[in-house]
Specification:
37% of the residues lie in helices and 21% in strands. The protein is built from 15 helices and 19 strands.
Length: 446
C-alpha cells in the first residue's frame, strides 16, 4: 500500500513496511560493500552557492534559516551564508572529494545512502523527502573506461537480490550522440541531447517540432530520430549505427565503448543490459556512458536508477576529478513495492518471543528469562500485563510475535508456537527459534 502521510510528499511507513524498506537497504549495502565501496555520509546542509552549482534543480532547494533570525529581522551583514538542504547526493559528494582529496585513495569507491529533500510537486513515486542510494568511482585526473562497465553490473547484482521483478539497465554513450551530431553538421549539440531525451514524453513529432524551433534542418532531425530508434542487447546495435553512414572519430570511440559494455553485460547479466540510443540523460555534465533502468511490468514508474560518466565531478583549479556513478531512488522503489504488494514482512515487530508473566510478584522471573534469551541473540520482550495466559497469547498474536514462553511452577519452562499451537519443554540456555523466525523476514507478496 502507498505511504501514509499527512504532509504531502513526506512518506512515513508503518513498522511492517519499514521492515521491507530496511531489507532493501541492507541488501544494497551488502552488495556495495561486497564490491569494495566504502560508506560515506555527508552533511544534510550545504551553502546555496554549492547547491546552485547544479543549476537545473536549484529552484527546488529548501532554504534553511533560523526562526530567531527571521523574528529579529537581522541585517544581512550579520547573517551566515545562505544554507539549504541537499537535493541529491552528487553535489555534496563533489564537495566532500575536494575537501578530503589529500586523505582519499584514488580511484575512490564510495556508496552513500541518505535522505534528500526536493521541493517538487509530489506524485506517484515522487516525494519531497526521500532516500537515495548512490555508488560512484572517482579518479584523480583520469579514470579508466572499465569502471563504466563495472557500475551497471554492480547495480544489476544488487537488484537481483531484491523482492522485485527483473530490472533492465538501459545504456547509451554520450560520445555516440555527440559524435553523430557533429558528423551531420549540428552545432547545437546540447539542444539535440535535451530534445532527444524527451522522446518518450513528447514523441517523435514533438521532438521534431522542438528541434525545428531551434533551427535544426529536417534532414538532421530525421537522422537523429533514426539514431534514437536503435536498441538491442548485442553488438548488432553497433552495425545499425554504422549503417546510417556517419563518419566521426568521437562517434567511433563511443561505439567501441558501448560494444565493450554490451559484451560484458552479455557475459555477466544476459538480457539485463540493453542499449537504447534515445537515452541521453539530457544534462551537460555527462560525457560518456549513461544509464537508466526499467522495472519489468512497472514501466510507468519511470527510471528507478540512473547516472553516468562525468569527466569533471569536481575541480580545485589544479586537479580535476572524473567519475562514474549511479543513483537509486530507494523511496520511489519501496513505494511501488508496497503499493503493488510485491513484498511483505513476515511480522511487524522484531520480537521473536514474548515471556508470559504469571503474576506481578513473579515479573522479575520473567525479566530474568528475557535477559538470558536476549544475551543469546533472541529478540525478546516481557508481557506488559499478568492477565490470563489466553489474553497474553492474544497480545502476542496481535503483535505478530510467533512464540510465547511460560515459566513452570516446578522450574520446567515451556514455549508455545502460537501459529501451530505446538508447545514444548524449553531450556533457556539452549532453546532457539527456527532460523526463519529469529528475525523478521521479507517474502514475495501474494
Amino acid at each position: 500500500m502507498p505511504a501514509r502521510t499527512s504532509l504531502s510528499g513526506f512518506p512515513e511507513w508503518l513498522p511492517a513496511e519499514r521492515i521491507v524498506e530496511q531489507h532493501i537497504l541492507d541488501q544494497l549495502r551488502e552488495t556495495f560493500e561486497l564490491h569494495g565501496f566504502a560508506s560515506v555520509e555527508t552533511r544534510a546542509i550545504e551553502t546555496l552557492d554549492e547547491l546552485q552549482r547544479k543549476g537545473e534543480t536549484s529552484k527546488e532547494v529548501y532554504i534553511l534559516e533560523r526562526l530567531q533570525d527571521r523574528l529579529q529581522d537581522r541585517n544581512d551583514s550579520k547573517k551566515e551564508r545562505p544554507l539549504g538542504l541537499h537535493f541529491d547526493l552528487t553535489v555534496p559528494f563533489a564537495r566532500f572529494v575536494l575537501d578530503n582529496a589529500g586523505e582519499l585513495q584514488f580511484p575512490f569507491r564510495r556508496y552513500q545512502i541518505q535522505k534528500v529533500w526536493r521541493g517538487e510537486r509530489p506524485q506517484d513515486g515522487r516525494f519531497r523527502e526521500f532516500t537515495q542510494a548512490d555508488i560512484d568511482i572517482v579518479g584523480n585526473g583520469t579514470l579508466a573506461f572499465h569502471h563504466e562497465v563495472e557500475i551497471p553490473l554492480v547495480i544489476l547484482e544488487a537488484f537481483s537480490k531484491l523482492p522485485i521483478p527483473p530490472v533492465t539497465v538501459l545504456v547509451n554513450n554520450r560520445k555516440i550522440v555527440q559524435g553523430f551530431c557533429e558528423g551531420i553538421g549540428i552545432d547545437n549539440v546540447e539542444q539535440a541531447l535535451r530534445s532527444i531525451d524527451k522522446l518518450d514524453k513528447i514523441g517523435p513529432k514533438g521532438v521534431s517540432a522542438e528541434l525545428l524551433e531551434h533551427g535544426f534542418e529536417q534532414d538532421q532531425i530525421d537522422r537523429l530520430l533514426s539514431l534514437a530508434s536503435i536498441s538491442g542487447d548485442d553488438e548488432a546495435v553497433l552495425d545499425e549505427v554504422r549503417s546510417l553512414g556517419v563518419a566521426n572519430e568521437l562517434l567511433e570511440e563511443g561505439l567501441t565503448e558501448l560494444g565493450a559494455l554490451l559484451a560484458a553485460g552479455s557475459k555477466r547479466a544476459p538480457h539485463r543490459l540493453r542499449a537504447e540510443l534515445k537515452i541521453t540523460r539530457g544534462l551537460d555534465y555527462y560525457t560518456g556512458t549513461v544509464y537508466e533502468t526499467a522495472l519489468e511490468g512497472h514501466e510507468d514508474l519511470g527510471s528507478i536508477c540512473s547516472g553516468g560518466r562525468y569527466d569533471s565531478l569536481a575541480s580545485d583549479g589544479k586537479r580535476t576529478f572524473p567519475g562514474v556513478g549511479i543513483s537509486i531512488g530507494v523511496s520511489r522503489l519501496v513505494s511501488r513495492i508496497l503499493a503493488a504488494n510485491l513484498a511483505v514482512a513476515s511480522r511487524s515487530v522484531p520480537t521473536a518471543v514474548l515471556v508470559a508473566v504469571v503474576n506481578e510478584e513473579m515479573r522479575a522471573d520473567s525479566e530474568d528469562i528475557a535477559y538470558k534469551l536476549r544475551s543469546r541473540g533472541i529478540p525478546t520482550e516481557v508481557s506488559p500485563s499478568s492477565q490470563k495466559f489466553g489474553k497474553q497469547i492474544r497480545y502476542a498474536d496481535r503483535r505478530g510475535i510467533p512464540f510465547v514462553w511460560f515459566i513452570g511452577e516446578d522450574g520446567v519452562n515451556e514455549v508455545k508456537d502460537i501459529r501451530s499451537g505446538e508447545q514444548q519443554i524449553a531450556d533457556v540456555d539452549s532453546w532457539m527459534p527456527p532460523a526463519e523466525d529469529l528475525k523478521p523476514t521479507v517474502r514475495p507478496g501474494e
